[in-house]
Amino acid sequence: MKGTPAVQIMGDAEGSRVLPSVGFVRLSVDLPVFDETLRIVADVPDQRLQMSDVIPLAYHICDRIVAASARHSQAVGEPASCRKGCSACCEQPVLISVPEAFRLITDIGSLPDDRKRRVNTALADAEKRTAAPGPPPNACSLLAEQACSIYAFRPCVCRTFLATSPPKLCDTHDARIMPVPIAVSSALGLWAAELEDDTSAPVLMSGTLSWCDDNHARSQRTWPGPQMVRQLFDILSKMALEAR
Ligand code: SF4
After folding, report:
1. Is the entire prediction scored with pTM above 0.70?
2. Which distant-in-sequence residues (6+ apart) come within 8 Å of 110 by Cβ?
3. Short-list 67, 83, 68, 3, CA closest to 34
4. Per-residue model confidence as pLDDT tens digits over 63-102
5. Atom 4, ligand 1: residue with shortest CA distance
6. Tens digit of each residue's pLDDT (9 = 90 or more) over 146-198
7. Would you state the pLDDT for residue 116?
């Protein structure tokens, strides 16, 4: 939300040593992932937030879970085989959670003008091609020269999708996918449904621009920040326990 201080993501050491700043509430959760327990610590503004304000924290959590899963896969002899330049997993329609769709618009807005124009044009073109007669585009519109054009703020589903089989199997969509016990994208869908007290169907990423226009009022809704993060932590904890 414009003018709202960001959720601060704390390292484990800072989280135990430094006191939260005035106006922030410190929250933490321990998430078991295979043989590790990940401690997530965040200082949350003690004010009302939009769903999209919490997404950078969700991306941090997702990356930590994926990294722990990759260490586990490596330890059992099935290391991730994904490499820069391989984009087979981007050649399919991508569904993202409602809060990530709202955040995508904010993150695109923060890009330098030329990149912002390119990403907005790519999304607008994808919408036109999806609406046109004939088969829909079979690659993500944000793939540019075999690389993700929004890599730093790509959605959780893209962060989570790693193969452990030889790269040539990705080309035939026969890849073995690395197990990740907590699906943060699904957690965000459940979280949005809980906050809005409604169902929360995922959004086709190539249609995010017009979907967000149609749902602008939803994107502006706010809830008490600490309560929102506690609810997200509860959902993630439940998923982690169910996966054990
Ligand atoms: S957003 Fe990026 S990582 Fe995700 S499918 Fe599109 S190009 Fe690939």
Report:
1. yes
2. none
3. 68
4. 999 999 999 999 999 999 888 878 888 888 899 999 999 9
5. 158
6. 889 999 999 999 999 999 998 888 878 788 999 999 999 999 999 999 999 99
7. 96
Residues near 155 by Cβ (< 8 Å), separated by ≥ 6? 94, 96, 97, 100, 104, 185, 205
Indicate which residue's Cα is closest to atom 2 of ligand 1: 148
Which two structure tokens, joined as six digits, stand for 14? 């800072």
Per-residue H/E/C for the chain: CCCCCCCEEECHHHHHHCCCCCCEEEEEEEEEECCEEEEEEEEEECCEECHHHHHHHHHHHHHHHHHHHHHHHHHCCCCCCCCCCCCHHHCCCCEECHHHHHHHHHHHHCCCHHHHHHHHHHHHHHHHHHHCCCCCCCCCCCEECCEECCHHHCCHHHHHCCECCCCHHHHCCCCCECCCCCCHHHHHHHHHHHHHCCCCCCEEHHHHHHHHHHCHHHHHCCEEHHHHHHHHHHHHHHHHHHCC
**Sign (positive/negative) of CA torsion 141, 221, 47, 192?**
negative
94 touches ligand 1 (CB under 6 Å): yes
How far apart CA 166 and CA 88 sit, in angstroms, is 12
- Give me ligand 1 centre to Cα 141, in Å: 8
Substitution candidate for ligand 1 out of 62, 63, 140 with most atoms within 8 A of CB: 140
Q: Which amino acid is at 104?
A: L
